[in-house]
Specification:
By secondary structure, the chain is an all-alpha fold. About 85% of the residues lie in helices and about 0% in strands.
Length: about 200
């Protein structure tokens, strides 16, 4: 449900583009994002940084698109967002030490070895860089229609596929951790039972 809420400005952008043009769609996504952030603040009295960053970029690049009548600004937005995420994830390795941002986000849900968290963080960095590049490749090599379709369905599909592959990757290590924990528990139980059966 949260994902659908996060994506609703993009859905409205897509619909407005199909009904009118890129400039109407840009105006729609600016207004929709402002409404989205305002709603979040009114309900929770706080807004996640990702929503604020997205709002800032939408207003800045979308505004430039409308003022200069140049679609390239709004087309660059997904790339700038993805490359911004890549930079933040990379910086977290140096600012947060052995706890990169992906670990801080998921540490409460799963337990993984330290080196796997580092590897997972670099996989996300690579994914963000790739997403930014492919967004530009589609925009500059195909029609505007194709890019709008890709912005909604392509980038979302790539993200789902990456998350699925990530889940399959880390499941191996969570299984290993569970097996080790089970063995440790069984070993402790056996040791306790042995001590209980020793004669006084």
């Amino acid at each position: 449900m949260k994902l659908l809420f996060d994506l609703f400005p993009v859905f409205l952008f897509f619909i407005a583009y199909k009904m009118y043009d890129i400039y109407v769609a840009t105006g729609v996504i600016i207004v929709a994002t402002i409404i989205q952030v305002s709603y979040l603040y009114a309900r929770h009295r706080r807004v996640e940084k990702i929503h604020l960053i997205t709002l800032g970029l939408i207003v800045l690049l979308g505004g430039a698109t409308l003022l200069l009548h140049d679609e390239r600004f709004i087309a660059w937005k997904p790339t700038i967002v993805n490359w911004g995420f890549a930079l933040v994830f990379l910086a977290s390795h140096y600012v947060m030490g052995n706890k990169p941002i992906v670990r801080r986000m998921m540490d409460a849900m799963i337990e993984l070895p330290d080196q796997i968290w580092i590897r997972l963080s670099y996989l996300w960095i690579g994914f963000f860089i790739f997403s930014g590049l492919i967004n530009l490749w589609v925009y500059y090599n195909f029609s505007l229609d194709a890019w709008v379709n890709f912005k909604l369905f392509g980038l979302m599909g790539l993200t789902f596929a990456f998350i699925l592959l990530q889940g399959l990757y880390i499941s191996r290590y969570t299984q290993i951790s569970n097996d080790e924990e089970t063995e440790s528990t069984e070993s402790s139980t056996d040791s306790t039972d042995t001590n209980r059966t020793k004669p006084d």
